[in-house]
Fold this protein.
Amino acid sequence: MTLISLVKTLNLTVRCCKEKLDCNVTGGYIGDLLSDVIANSDKGNVWITRQSHQNIVAVAELKEHAGIILVRGREPEEETLEKAVKAGIPILSTALPGFEVAGRIYELIKR
Amino acid sequence: MVPTLKYKNTFPVEGGNFDNAGVISLQIKNIIRDMGFPDDIQRRAAIAIYESELNIISYARAGNINVRIAPHLICIDAADEGPGIEDIDRAMKDGYSTANDRIREMGFGAGMGLSNIKKCSDKFEIISETNKGTHLKILIDIN
């Protein structure tokens, strides 16, 4: 499953790095505790979170995430977008709650 | 015999400044990757350094992270000037944290940092003195 097809199916808003959406998504991780995400998420995951501050970018870059999905209407802060563009980490947003986003992605990836 | 170092560097870390959190970890991860070390070693070193950076930023006034890479070993020393850790055994427990609300709101200070470091290291030692500082000594074997 590519990130672009996730974006289309879930109707996610692309906040940056439009050109990086053709990567493969290996799975997902949901969490707002950065130490949890850094310890337990995997390369190629989409990270589903409500954290929108700039420090999420370094975590996603370190873990080589496919992208970050901000849920429940969270929008990235300006510094977050600047860092994400530099790092080449797509940031996507949606009004949907994390539970629903995770559930739908899980179904899509499982197929 | 002292093994030949492939790399060594010391990075200063400013307490309270979250803007560049993770920068040292990323830099070292890329160096280790370029040296051809396996994914698991890259992952463990990245997590250990990231958590060390965050500890200094979250709790100390200032600190230094020294990284030495030998063919079969990575040594990470994170030393800070800060409040120190009163009860190291308790601090090692998952979920125990002395972080303030601001740090927690950002998703840091979950009480997982030191145990994450422990899980990623082959040898981990904490030397701490109250009101003086903390020194984390981390070794990762490459085999």
About this structure: The interface with chain A takes residues 18-19, 21-23, 25-26, 29, 39, 46-47, 50-51, 54, 106-108, 110, 112-113, 116, 119 of chain B (CB under 8 Å). Chain B has five helices and five strands. The domain at 7-141 of chain B is CATH 3.30.565.10 (Heat Shock Protein 90). The beta strands of chain B are 7-14, 62-70, 73-81, 123-129, 133-141.
